[in-house]
Design a protein that fits this description.
Layout (H helix, E strand, L loop, with lengths): L1 H6 L16 E2 L4 E2 L12 E4 L2 E4 L15 H10 L4 E4 L21 H9 L17 E4 L2 E5 L6 H10 L4 E5 L14 E5 L2 E4 L11 H4 L4 E4 L23 E4 L2 E5 L3 H9 L3 E5 L32
Parallel strand pairs: 4-5, 7-8, 10-11, 13-14
Antiparallel strand pairs: 1-2, 3-4, 6-7, 9-10, 12-13
Length: 303
């Protein structure tokens, strides 16, 4: 995948892994191991000339930001306009989580009811958000309220990015709402593909429809189950990476998603990544764009 991007003139930087198998702790908790650093999309959010480190909401991911500090230091040293910001690190005490929320005794129907009521595993004890819950549309940020981002986290984002309009969304059809990029994916100006099992509620579609955006059902996944050891759903099929308004990277085996995007006028680049899903996600997850050419645009002037 990296070679494909490099051949297209894209500069690829890599994080510096730490020993993820070691025990970690803070004064409030202990964990036996860490997660890894395959999905930088979860940790880093680039808005304008700023790269923001998210709070993160899993204890096993509390120290993950360290993998990116060498890169961020280099960006900061080489670009006088670059801003390196870090959201307040949460304590992640037991008060941040609802006890037994993830019990196997709770069925899918109950979980769907909870999602519709916006009753999630994380509480409102302190601001929490993962960067992969945030979509950037020029002057607007669309943020999923779910397991990994709470309302206090969204409020913190609003206060921090004062020059941007921040919109909270949720998807009642998702019993485990973790990150937005296998649910709601902008492809190019005016077109978003939406997971047909997790449709954006009608009352939340107004922002997009009033500004001429089409929200269409994404194609069905090519697989009935995720690969071995992968904790994500089969809907990583729509976890695509848009390189520019005419070019998109799609996992090689996801032929239906590739066909749909081809019909939407995109050049589709197939990428063999399915065997890496177990490390943290798909093509969008495993990348975090830190510099793109273009101007700041208002995609939603009617608000």
């Amino acid at each position: 995948f990296s070679d494909i991007l490099i051949k297209r003139g894209i500069k690829v930087d890599r994080p510096t892994p730490i020993n993820f198998n070691q025990n970690i702790s803070t004064p409030d908790w202990k964990a036996e191991t860490m997660f890894g650093c395959m999905p930088p999309r979860d940790v880093l959010l680039t808005v304008g000339n700023e790269i923001l480190e998210a709070t993160m909401s899993y204890r096993c991911r509390w120290f993950e930001y360290l993998c990116y500090r060498p890169l961020l230091k280099n960006y900061y040293d080489s670009d006088p306009n670059m801003r390196h910001e870090s959201a307040p690190k949460p304590r992640l005490t037991d008060e941040d989580y609802r006890k037994d929320y993830l019990s196997d005794k709770i069925g899918i129907q109950k979980r769907l009811e909870w999602t519709e009521k916006k009753f999630f595993v994380t509480t409102e004890e302190e601001p929490l958000f993962d960067a992969a819950d945030i979509l950037r549309f020029g002057k607007d940020l669309v943020v999923q309220h779910g397991f990994t981002t709470n309302l206090k986290g969204i409020d913190w984002i609003k206060r921090h990015f004062k020059n941007h309009r921040v919109h909270s969304v949720n998807f009642p059809g998702d019993p485990y709402p973790i990150h937005i990029d296998a649910t709601f994916t902008p492809i190019k100006e005016g077109i978003i593909i939406n997971n047909p099992q997790r449709r954006l509620p009608p009352q939340q579609r107004k922002l997009f429809e009033d500004n001429g955006w089409k929200i269409i059902d994404s194609a069905q996944p090519a697989h009935n189950s995720p690969p071995a050891l992968c904790y994500s759903s089969v809907w990583l099929s729509m976890n695509v990476l848009v390189l520019d308004p005419k070019t998109v990277c799609v996992e090689k085996s996801e032929v239906y998603q590739a066909e749909q995007l081809d019909k939407l006028g995109m050049e589709v680049i197939p990428v063999d990544l399915r065997d890496a899903y177990a490390f943290g996600g798909g093509l969008h997850c495993c990348t975090a764009d830190v510099y793109r050419e273009g101007d700041l645009k208002d995609y939603f002037p009617k608000q």
